[in-house]
Amino acid sequence: MAEPSVTVERRDHLLLLGVNRPEKRNAWNLDVIVGIARGLTELAQDQDLRVGVIFGHGAVFTAGLDLPAVAPVIAAGEGASVLPPDSVDPWDFLGEPCPKPVVVAVHGRCYTLGIELVLASQVAVAAADTVFAQLEVARGIVPLGGATWRLPAKLGTAGARYLLTAEEFDANEALRIGLITEVVPVGRHLDRAIELAEKIARNAPLGVQAALAGGRAAERSARDAAAQHLRDSVRGLFNSEDASEAVAAMLAKRSPTFRGR
């Protein structure tokens, strides 16, 4: 029997969701996206669950989106169908988020949608070996999960830099610019994330959820404007020659040559 793309574990008031494609460096294909969305929907709907923890099995948190698997769906204008009906949006961008807190534990690599997941979470713990990169503009496309808005809005000029340069940066830099909550020794990221999730879970759940909802209400109009702009532009980007060149270069393991069309 095949291993699940996402593992699900209940631990008292916590729900642990593990991305489980280590042979693909935990790149998110449609199965992973659906698995995480359904897990967070379970967290949202179950009164006994108070906090979610998202992590990655294997050597890295995630190498990002499985572009060859997902890009055709988006290019066809069917991006909205990626998330199951009535599920929460893990990135709190194109749909409604989980009303309960989420803690993210990252290690190894945290690329593209992994950063966007961190930006949408309430607490993020990184192992000291973590390397981050928002790579989409180097792949002829644009981030789909809110980084176009949240990186500059939350992290200022540093966020804008990493959005537009696609540079890699390390865990200490991520802490300095405010992307993550703390850096821990290699191998301790998940344990520490669970410790922090348990601290949150010991507080009054209705109060925690109200505090979270209040912060989201303040940013809702900006989020919706950024999401609408993405909806208006993303299909054209994914059907551009540059996007096709990026996929071909990735499969051929060579550098792409972009022509701006």
Detailed description of the structure:
45% of the residues lie in helices and 15% in strands. With 261 residues, the protein is of the alpha/beta class. It has one domain (1-185, 205-261): Alpha-Beta Complex (2-enoyl-CoA Hydratase, Chain A, domain 1). The strands form 2 sheets. The protein has a 6-stranded mixed beta sheet, with helices on both faces. A 3-stranded mixed beta sheet has the order 5-7-8. Helix 2 (67-75) crosses helix 7 (205-238) and helix 3 packs across helix 4. The chain is globular and about 55 Å long. It starts with 5 loop residues before the first strand and ends in a 9-residue tail after the last helix.
Mean pLDDT: 94
Which architecture name does CATH use?
Alpha-Beta Complex
Q: Give the overall form.
A: globular
N/C terminus separation: 44 Å
For this entry, give a set of tags.
single chain; 3-stranded mixed beta sheet; 2-enoyl-CoA Hydratase, Chain A, domain 1; 261 residues
List the SSEs and their pairings.
Layout: E1 6-11, E2 14-19, H1 30-45, E3 51-56, H2 67-75, E4 102-106, E5 109-111, H3 113-120, E6 123-127, E7 131-133, H4 147-165, E8 168-170, H5 171-177, E9 182-184, H6 189-201, H7 205-238, H8 241-252
Helix pairs in contact: 2-7, 3-4
Provide a compact summary of the structure.
This protein has 261 residues and is of the alpha/beta class.
